[in-house]
Amino acid sequence: MYDLLIADALLYDGTGAPPVEGSIAIQGDRIAAVGPEARGPARRVLKAAGYAAAPGFVDIHSHSDYHLLLAPEAASSLLQGVTLEVGGNCGYAAAPIAGPWQREREETYGEVYGLSLGFSTVAEYFARLTRERIGINFALLMGHNTLRGSILGGANRAPTPEEAERMAALARRGMAEGAVGLSTGLVYAPACFAKPEELTALATVVREAGGILTAHIRSEGDGLLEALEEILGVAEAAAIPLQVSHLKTSGEKNWGKLPEAFALIERALARGLTVRCDRYPYTAANTGLSACLPSWALEGGRDAQVARLGDPSVRERLTAELATQGKTDTYWDRVMIAEVVTEGNKRFEGLRVSRAAAAAGKPPPPFVLDLLVAEKMQVDAIYFTMSEENLRQILAKPYVMIGSDAGTRNFTGPLSGGHPHPRGFGTFPRVLGHCVRDLGLFDLATAIRKMTWDPCRMVGLHDRGRLIPGAVADLTLFDPDRVRDEATYEDPYRPPSGIAWVLVNGQVAVEAGALTEVRAGRPVRPVRREA
Questions:
Q1: Quick one: which of 54, 130, 186, 503 has the fewest CB in 10 Å?
Q2: In the prediction, which pLDDT does 301 show?
Q3: Buried b vs exposed e over 501-514: b needs ≥16 C-beta within 10 Å?
Q4: Confidence of residue 453 (pLDDT cuts 50, 70, 90)
Q5: Which residues is 9 bridged to in the sheet?
Q6: Contact 65/88 with Cβ under 8 angstroms?
Q7: 529 falls in which pLDDT band (50, 70, 90)?
Q8: Dist. CA 370–CA 350, nearest whole Å
């Protein structure tokens, strides 16, 4: 007697193979049988004729580390078919964390959300996620920025040998406790102050424990090619598999660099380096508003940054430097304020900086600096800087996986406000609908491979991501003719259409396109690594 039989679906196994009609039998949290011959008595039968059945979608680039503590239901993730997220990206991870960064995070989440974190190690963080009864599975990358900030704070200098060893020790322990690798955000403080040798040393520690390196590279615009050469050099020196985060060409003058970017990656592949990339199916980026500032303005912790931006001489220098960088009227028309913390500035959410500044009666540069000071640097922004044609070429590459670059959201509670990027609700159905059905960038089997088995094998989760007996029963069933994203920049809190059922560890978390009360997720650790 099976616990559940999903009957007569069109089965996509996750490997990119053509689909076959058949059924999936589930016992406990595992797939017991799959295929045309998967039959037998079951406590419940889902009649799935006309639906595509795939492994649950894997968000290889997530930022839900802290979001899961505020919205453990993971509504926006589950409703688009995501059953597993890999968090800790762009250099920032919930754990391991220590020292000044741990204190700052405790203060920030205490002040803004009244949330006590109470963890330092990966094991403690995973225990916290377990207690919260999260709705999705979650794997963790350690953050280079977080490690550096934990030991050096926001200092703009190289670590001493003793500090370097302390960072390495945190990384070793994190890997032993279940992290899948290390991420870096070389465009962000404090990793922007790190030399390649520092990152290579940490990456070597992680590789020795079987992990990978992911990288938000030092530049995705003017210095794109140099930044790619840098990170490929680090990966080769450390002999570690590399994942380039959200591969893009930012800024119209840089769109023509894409062929050479591909060539750099593909030459590295030809040399035998394992290189993968991830990307979301949108042409706008989403990060902090502070990302528009030069790195020297972001030295030190949050208090030091706020004090610096309030200094009249610094403001004068920043205003001049922003203009020199081309951040003038047209630039501010392409930046939207997505989310702030204080009630008094909520009126600016959803507005382009140019319009918000006009409403405040200020030119854009002083408005931006004033807003960052008032919000203690906690301003989220959306940057409309990319090419649709380049996006299509990137997504079509066989080494590019799908990642949202978002944190999970909910329709109520602390993570239901602002104007977040629509990718948080729409990434995966947008690939299935817009990219596959509308644009024909690749077939449905290839799209599913990019969202299931490719990310699972990248991070060593070899019991997930495929429809095979013995695999974990994370599943997504959808209507291939109806599935599509509904979220927009103007109205981001709109769930997708066409996602019918989602199972997490064998339990039905979404039924008839709506959330059940099931929260069956858990922290996950690598099973084994294949060459």
A1: 130
A2: 84
A3: bbbbbbbbbbeebe
A4: very high
A5: 22
A6: yes
A7: very low
A8: 18
